[in-house]
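Task: sequence design from structure.
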């Protein structure tokens, strides 16, 4: 008997719905082949929810997310909603999901797939075989710290305030996720902060260092965030797992992603703590965002969304075999020369979102035969 898995699917805005549609093909294929059974609930988030309901995410959607085995998220935001205040913006949907579900560990892989080694702006020799995992803290730091806001001073000038705050338990739990990932990979962990100028950064460094004794098989190093940005471009293969704060992780993961050639290729997972019942809340999303400039044109790369679904199968449903199958199908389709515009290369055939999605399913069919 195949267990029935409950997924909440939140396509969101921009290219979100288009690329999510292609994941639907993979889901249908898996059900048809009786590899899995899914109960899928779909809901609105971001600008789509603002337009329909006046809020980027409702309490009911948060409830559905808590109830699901996992959440598959598309992307939110666009110029239409840019003028809204911070308490109303589409981005609030993802920030609330992270916060309300306690999704504190954001796993952002930056992997260079062999067929795409020429898509990087860096020389192939620098990025070939690159495989970095950035673990970004995602419920704390300056994104959520108090006080925050803009105040008007007596002389009429204004003062904008955001606060970087970390407690030892917040640092420890995300660092443990990173140490454990490193144990399953090349056993190297680099902890990144600005301990030279920030008290919270010094606490971060000391707290991570103190945990190292629990992971004697992992080689721990520390690096300042500015140096890390430089090293990522100079010699990215020195890194295995990186663990860092919310804001530094936001910046460094965008940087690392571009080493791979296209944002359109990269998935991510955001995990909560394992509860007493063994369950853990988790959300999976491509890192590319809503890309309003190409939305609705049918040219977006659906692979990051498909690979996010593969991560969901691996981390939330323990379906390693199916996850690896989807990943292999994506690589094979690229190797066969099909490319969306973002990863187009000389000699390849340029295709749109739908043709790419269909090709992945055809490849799945071949691989599973
Ligand atoms: C990301 C995005 C978000 C963030 C935005 C959309 C709030 O940039 O997931 O990296 O800053 O965390
Ligand atoms: Mg970002």
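Answer:
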């Amino acid at each position: 008997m195949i267990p029935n898995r409950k997924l909440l699917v939140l396509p969101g805005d921009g290219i979100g719905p288009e690329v999510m549609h292609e994941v639907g093909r993979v889901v249908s294929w898996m059900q048809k082949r009786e590899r899995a059974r899914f109960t899928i609930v779909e809901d609105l988030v971001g600008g789509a929810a603002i337009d329909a309901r006046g809020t980027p995410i409702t309490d009911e959607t948060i409830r559905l997310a808590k109830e699901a085995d996992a959440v598959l998220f598309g992307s939110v935001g666009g110029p239409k909603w840019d003028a809204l205040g911070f308490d109303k913006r589409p981005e609030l949907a993802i920030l609330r999901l992270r916060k309300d579900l306690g999704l504190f560990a954001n796993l952002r892989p930056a992997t260079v797939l062999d067929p795409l080694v020429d898509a990087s702006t860096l020389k192939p020799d620098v990025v070939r075989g690159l495989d970095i995992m950035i673990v970004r803290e995602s419920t704390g730091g300056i994104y959520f710290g108090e006080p925050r806001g803009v105040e008007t001073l007596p002389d009429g000038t204004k003062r904008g305030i955001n606060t970087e705050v970390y407690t030892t338990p917040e640092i420890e739990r995300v660092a443990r996720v990173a140490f454990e990932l490193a144990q399953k990979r090349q056993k190297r962990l680099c902890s990144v902060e600005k301990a030279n100028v920030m008290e919270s950064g010094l606490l971060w460094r000391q707290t991570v260092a103190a945990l190292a004794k629990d992971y004697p098989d992992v080689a721990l190093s520390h690096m300042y965030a500015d140096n890390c940005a430089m090293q990522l471009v100079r010699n990215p293969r020195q890194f295995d797992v990186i663990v860092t704060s919310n804001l530094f992780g936001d910046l460094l993961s965008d940087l690392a992603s571009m080493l791979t050639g296209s944002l359109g290729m990269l998935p991510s997972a955001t995990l909560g703590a394992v509860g007493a019942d063994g369950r853990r809340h988790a959300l999976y999303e491509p890192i590319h965002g809503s890309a309003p400039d190409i939305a609705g044109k049918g040219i977006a790369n659906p692979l990051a969304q498909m690979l996010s679904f593969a991560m969901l199968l691996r981390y939330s449903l323990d379906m390693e075999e199916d996850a690896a199958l989807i990943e292999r199908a994506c690589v094979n389709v690229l190797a066969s020369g099909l490319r969306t515009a973002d990863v187009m290369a000389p000699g390849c055939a340029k295709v749109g979102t739908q043709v790419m999605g269909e090709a992945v399913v055809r490849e799945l069919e071949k691989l599973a035969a």
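The chain has a mean pLDDT of 96.
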